[in-house]
C-alpha cells in the first residue's frame, strides 16, 4: 500500500490571517523547566546538571486556530442551530466518515469564483465514476500552489449552494478541498451579493451544513498526485472537546 500525504503543514513562517505563534523550549530549557515543575507541584528536588548534557526534553507551545493547516470542519462550525437538530462538535462525529473510498474532481480550470453543479456533473462524467454514499469527495482547485502566501486566501474556487447540495444528495458526508475554504473567496461572494442582492451567494457551502449534517476538509494538498478514484482517504480529526473543527493528518491509501 502506498501512503500519500495530503496535509498542509502548520508553519509559523507562512502567511496566515490569524498568525501562528510557535514557541520552542530547547532540551536544556526543558530540563530546567521540568525541575521547576517537579519542585512546585510534587515537592521533588532535581538538579538538571545530573542529566546527560544537562538536557531533558524539548517542548513546543503553539497558539493557533483549529482552522490552521489541514483540518476538518464540524457541523457546529456552520451555526448554532441545524434543521436536523443540535449541530455536533468535532469530537462527536462518527469515525467511519473519515476512512472511506475517495474521489478527486479536478476543477482547477475554474480559476477564482464559484463552482456550479454543471461543472461537477461534467467532471463526474469525465472520470466515469459517480460518488457513492459516504465516499469522500475532494476538489482539486489548484489553490495549494499558493499555500504560505496571502494569495492562498484570495485566489481559489469554491462550491456554490446547488453544487454542495448535489454532492450531499449523492450521500457524500465529507467534502474536501485544497483551497482555504470550501466556499468561494470572500471578495467574490461579497461582490456578487452587492451586485445581485442575493443572500444565497454568501457562504452557501458552509450554510448548507445548517440544513444537512456534513463535514468539510479544508487546506488539503497534493491532490494533483492522486488517481481520480479507486483509493481510500484517512482524515480522522483531532478530538478537541466541544470544538467546531479539528486538525487532521490527511493521507491517501492506495493499494498496489
TrEMBL record:
Its EC number is 3.5.1.9. GO terms for molecular function: arylformamidase activity. It comes from the Bacteria. The keyword Metal-binding does not apply. It is an enzyme of class 3 (hydrolase). InterPro entries: KFase/CYL, KFase_sf. PANTHER family: CYCLASE-LIKE PROTEIN 2 (PTHR31118). This is Kynurenine formamidase. It comes from Streptomyces hundungensis.
Amino acid at each position: 500500500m502506498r501512503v500519500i500525504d495530503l496535509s498542509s503543514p502548520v508553519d509559523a513562517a507562512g502567511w496566515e490571517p490569524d498568525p501562528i505563534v510557535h514557541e520552542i523550549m530547547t532540551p536544556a530549557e526543558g530540563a530546567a523547566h521540568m525541575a521547576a515543575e517537579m519542585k512546585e507541584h510534587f515537592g521533588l528536588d532535581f538538579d538538571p546538571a545530573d542529566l546527560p548534557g544537562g538536557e531533558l526534553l524539548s517542548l513546543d507551545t503553539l497558539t493557533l486556530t483549529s482552522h490552521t493547516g489541514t483540518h476538518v470542519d464540524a457541523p457546529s462550525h456552520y451555526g448554532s442551530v441545524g434543521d436536523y437538530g443540535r449541530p455536533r462538535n468535532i469530537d462527536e462525529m462518527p469515525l467511519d466518515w473519515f476512512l472511506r473510498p475517495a474521489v478527486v474532481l479536478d476543477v482547477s480550470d475554474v480559476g477564482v469564483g464559484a463552482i456550479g453543479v454543471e461543472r461537477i456533473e461534467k467532471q463526474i462524467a469525465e472520470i466515469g465514476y459517480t460518488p457513492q454514499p459516504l465516499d469522500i469527495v475532494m476538489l482539486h482547485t489548484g489553490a495549494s500552489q499558493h499555500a504560505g502566501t496571502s494569495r492562498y486566501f484570495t485566489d481559489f474556487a469554491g462550491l456554490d449552494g446547488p453544487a454542495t447540495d448535489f454532492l450531499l444528495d449523492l450521500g457524500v458526508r465529507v467534502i474536501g478541498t485544497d483551497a482555504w475554504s470550501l466556499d468561494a473567496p470572500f471578495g467574490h461572494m461579497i461582490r456578487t451579493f452587492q451586485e445581485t442582492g442575493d443572500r444565497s451567494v454568501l457562504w452557501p457551502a458552509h450554510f448548507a451544513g445548517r440544513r444537512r449534517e456534513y463535514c468539510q476538509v479544508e487546506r488539503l494538498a497534493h491532490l494533483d498526485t492522486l488517481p481520480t478514484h479507486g483509493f481510500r482517504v484517512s482524515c480522522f480529526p483531532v478530538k478537541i472537546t466541544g470544538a467546531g473543527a479539528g486538525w487532521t493528518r490527511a493521507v491517501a491509501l492506495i493499494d498496489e
